[in-house]
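Blinded run. Sample ID left blank on purpose so nobody reads anything into the name before looking at the predicted structure. Input follows.
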Amino acid sequence: KTDSALTVKIAYCPAVKFLRSIGSEITEYFYATTEFVMDTLAELGGIDFEMISYDNETGAAEYRFATRG
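Blinded prediction complete.
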């Protein structure tokens, strides 16, 4: 966290973990769910969103919210 940004690190996605546990395959585009939701929330809040990294195997992710300008 800085005065103008918040970086979030997620170790794994519970949805990905569950789907894998029941033998479901995870589409390579599953990350878009997280990206779309977080980007929409940021837009509504008047801030920027950036997906820094995403691991399709675990759903682990790193992303940043930052003030505009």
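Unblinding after everyone has recorded impressions. The helical segments are 14-21, 31-45.
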